[in-house]
Structures are given as structure tokens and as C-alpha cells.
Amino acid sequence: MISPNRAKRPEDYRTYSVMHGLPELDPNCVFCPGNEDKNPDLCRDICRIPNTPDWQLRVIENKYPAVTKVPLGAHRDFFHSRAGFGEHEVIISRKHNEPVALQSTLHLENTLQLFKQRIDLLGKDERVAYSQIFHNHGKEAGASLVHPHYQLIALPFVPPHIHGEVAGYYHYYQTHGTCIYCDIIKMEKSLKDRVVYESERYIALCPYSSRLPFETWIMPKHHSPRFEWSDDSELKHMAFILKTVLGQLYTKLGDPPLNFYIHSMPYIRGKHTQMEEKSFYHHCTIFPRIANWAGFEFGTGISINIMPPEETAKFLRDRLSNI
Amino acid sequence: MISPNRAKRPEDYRTYSVMHGLPELDPNCVFCPGNEDKNPDLCRDICRIPNTPDWQLRVIENKYPAVTKVPLGAHRDFFHSRAGFGEHEVIISRKHNEPVALQSTLHLENTLQLFKQRIDLLGKDERVAYSQIFHNHGKEAGASLVHPHYQLIALPFVPPHIHGEVAGYYHYYQTHGTCIYCDIIKMEKSLKDRVVYESERYIALCPYSSRLPFETWIMPKHHSPRFEWSDDSELKHMAFILKTVLGQLYTKLGDPPLNFYIHSMPYIRGKHTQMEEKSFYHHCTIFPRIANWAGFEFGTGISINIMPPEETAKFLRDRLSNI
């Protein structure tokens, strides 16, 4: 529900900086260099940038995992349950006080490479159906530690939102014979008013049904079901557009608390059907946590968004030259 | 997903008081007595408690409505939209600094009576399909004003969560020939470990699939599809159990930010079928806003709850005598 009657301009949502006044290294932070022994690396080699003595990115197991490597299992009585099987990893960026928005494009590119490697690796376990990568920045966005990090949760089932997207995708494809995301991009490019930024190979846009103020999607401009299938050049371009959008949010809203996550096609084992290869379209969703969900949202499942996507896109486009 | 591995006890989630240090009357508060002229009453008569000179509860139009009385309409192009028709009311409780948990049972009973009257009245408009009543307490729970109030939003469609419950209900009824909520209550009464409190006619329990820490449901012990069908005696009993649960949360967690809402059967016009009369079961859902939804929850639609319902129920049962 888009309800823009609060009469606030986008710049009125400027917040305090999540990272304000933090040092580059905090000896008390378990994610900071010097405390590596408290959290053993899961993959030391691939996280090192060639020709540097120090790590720039690390992967560790979450100390308080939401899911663990328990045996698969289910209990069926009046109430049903499943065993909490899965893997819960944390990907740490080196500098304590450097939010993703301020990291170099090269560092972001390496981060995306690492996402790809971990998601590929987790998918080799046949019990895993889906891996969700996400980033929480700031307390209001659910981050318990301020040090920049990502989380990766591998699950033995496809989560409801991804399942819903797959089902919607199939339905649209069956009805129209085309990809809904390709059609959305074509439409948004012609309308222009919800496009934030367009590079040679990627596009950033504010979705028509934005759930939250300043919600922005990043998508490749070529049909691409799975994030992990991106090649080096694609990841380089994706890093650049991610940095562009996060940079605009950082500059214009004052380093707001935010989340982002990537939706990708669920793992498929064996030979892919043509339908499967054509299906889905990976995309990265970004939103600052400026408006809090209230009783209405939790009660009804409807989000009241006080910031129309056209206004958000205009606001984020400002001082970007290629639109 | 219930993930109780953060090794915190329920009492560790004690928060600051939302109402700390506030006066009983704040002349700058638009909801306080003295500022009535800024927001005209929608129904002065029924909000006055007989034999008192002053109002105890008021109903006004929301100054920043999420929906308004625009003509019904829909636009169908590549993107679809519907006109934002609806009504958005605010129900105000008199005292600026008296959270619902500390209000008298009589005042709560009058509040529930007022909910019933407003929901009944809104339902007389045939364009309205559902009315959602909800309460936001504290900034983290989405309340923009601290003065205790409720909101009521009437919509021309049945919201996704209620639609989902109706669909699930029908499916269960078709399969088993019984009411799922009646069966849940029977089961919970026999298991006991998720029951918080049981009065003669109502029960409070922590649901098996609790989405959020300390989530609690209040339900009548007799089959009752629609909240508005409750009679005076039922509303009295409901007020008492609501006060009991909110009082326990207030005492044990320190007046936490919280939401509650009531789910009721959507409006049905004309003669009810037996199926419809048997269907649904109204219930009130309460949860403090102690854990913030993060990227994982928004990305997947799965809520990670670090507090098992059995532990919550035990914690809230403590020093209540009838279990």
C-alpha cells in the first residue's frame, strides 16, 4: 500500500550514522583482526587477496547459528516440526568502521566472488535446497555487531518468499511465454521514472510495489536465473552498481541502518530442463530501515509504504549523470 | 524457525519503559484532553462513560490516513493497482501516560465495546471487506505518538494474512471435519506447557509456531468466528485476560514496546451458510518488539525466534495461580 500523505520529503528521512565515531580496529570486537583465533576460518585460502599479507575477508561459522548440522528429520503429530538442519556462516569484511557503501569496488567485487564460492560450495551438499545471503547494517536492521559482515544461511527447503517468486514466475511464463523480470526491466526502461541507475550490464530500480521507503532492486540487464552463474566480468559490474546505490543512500540519508539480500534460483540437481534454465532472475534487494513495521503490517501482511517509488528513484538519481 | 541457542534467559530481554517519566496530561500532545478541537470526534456519544463528565475514549479520523474515502477503482496495465479506498480511525484512551497494561479492566472492557461498535459500523458499508484493529506501543513497535491509542483500518479486500488463515481453516475443516482452533485449544490444554493463563471463558497461550519472542494468543474457549459477535459478558472476560497478559509482560519485561491486533472473520453479507458460521475463530495476537526483523526475515519470509514458546509460557505463568 503506497500512502504518501505524510507530506515528508525524502531528505526528511536522513538518520544518524550507524558507524559514527568508530575506530578502524577495535581490539574488543570479535570480528576484528587480532581476534581470529576466537573464530576459526572456514576457508582461509580463498579469502586472501593475492599479494597482500593480511586478510580482507573471512568466513567463519556463526557462533549462535539459527540452523546446525543436525541430522535431517521431521516429526508429525498434531503439531508438525522439522529438525533445524542447515549451515549458518558469517562473512567478515576487515575494517571495523568501513560500511559496505564506503568499501572499494574491488573489495566489493571480491566479496561477491566469495558469496559465489560459498553458495556454490553449500549447494554441493544435496540436503541443501537454498542458500540465503544477507546483510544487516545497524541495530534497527537487526545487526547485533556493528563490524561489517554478511550472513549466509543454507536450508533444506526453499523459503516461502523464494518459493512464492518461483511459483509466480512459472505462472507468468506459462501465461505469457516471457520472463516477468525481463518484461519488468523493459517496461521500467521505457517509463524511466522508477529507474535509479543503469550501467552497461546492470540496472537499479525502485520496484512498482515497493514495500518499504527507498526499496531498490539491482538486476542484471541480461536474463540470469542464478547469482552463482555470474562470471568475473558480471560480478565486477554488479559490485559497481551495488556501490553506486549504497553510496547514494549513504550520502543522502546519512549512513542509515539497512538490509540487503540476493534472491537466486533454488539449487537444481542433475540435468536442467529448458523451463528451469529460463526460469527465475536473480536480483539484489536493498532497503534502509527507516520505517518500522507496526501492528498493521504484522497483522495483515500488508506493508504501508509512505514513500512512492517514483519519488525515491528521483531522489536517488539526483547527481548521477547517466539517466 | 525456533533457534534457542543464544543462551539468554527470558528475563534478559527486559527493556526500558516506553512510558518512563511521562506526565498524565501533556498540553502539547494532540491526543490529550484540551486539544479535542484539533481532531473532531467521529462518535462522541458512545465514547462517554455514563455518569462521568469527561471522555475516557475518543474516536477520530487519522490525520495521515493510509486509506481514504476515494471512489473504488482499479487500473490494469502492465502494472496493476487499486484505488486506496478505506477508512482509517484512531481510538484514543484518555490518560497520556497510562499504557494499556495499567488501565482498569472496566476501561479495557469499554475499549473492547468501542472496537465492536466501530467494526460493526464500518461493516455496514458494503464496499468494506475487512476491518483491522491494532495497537502500537512504543517507537520500536511503530507508534509515532506515545499517547495510548489504537488504530482501525477498513479495507475493500481481505488482507493476505487473514485470507491465508481463512483458506487454511477451510482446508482443515474439509479434511478433518473439525475446527482447527478448537483442536489447538484442546491440544494445548492437555499439554499445558504453552498455556499462559486460563480463565472460565478465555485462554492465553504461546503458539507452537511463535514467530516472535513472547508471542501470545488470547482466544475464547468457545467457538467464536467473529470478535464483534462477543456479548457483554464475553468482552468483560476478554478485557480481564488481556489485562492479565499485558500486565505480566509489563511487570516482567519492563513495559516493552509491543503490538497487538485482533483477527476476526471477514464481513459476510446476507445469509450465512453453516460452513461460514462454523468457520474461523477470532483471536488476539500480542508480541513485544524485542527482536528486530533482519535481512533474513524480509528476504525469506521465515522468522527466526530465539525464544521457544514453552519457555515464554513458563516465564509469563510465573506468579499466576490458576495453572
Mean pLDDT of chain A: 91
Helicity of chain A, as a percent range? 25-40%
What is the end-to-end distance of chain A? 27 Å
Computed over alpha carbons, the radius of gyration of chain A is 20 Å
In which order are the strands of the major sheet of chain A placed?
A: 1-4-6-5-10-11-9-8-7
Largest interface: A-B, 52 and 52 residues
Number of strands of chain A: 11
CATH architecture of chain A: 2-Layer Sandwich
What's the CATH topology label of chain A?
A: HIT family, subunit A
Q: Which stretches of chain A of 5+ consecutive residues score pLDDT under 50?
A: none
The string of secondary-structure elements of chain A, in order, is HEEEEHEEHHEEEHEHEHH
Helices and strands of chain A: which structural class?
alpha+beta
> How much beta of chain A, percentage-wise?
15-25%
Count of separate DSSP helical elements of chain A: 8
Please, what is the CATH homologous superfamily of chain A? Answer: HIT-like
Query: What sort of overall outline of chain A do the alpha carbons produce when their principal axes are compared?
Result: globular
Query: How many distinct folded domains of chain A?
Result: 1
Biggest β-sheet of chain A, characterized?
9 strands, antiparallel
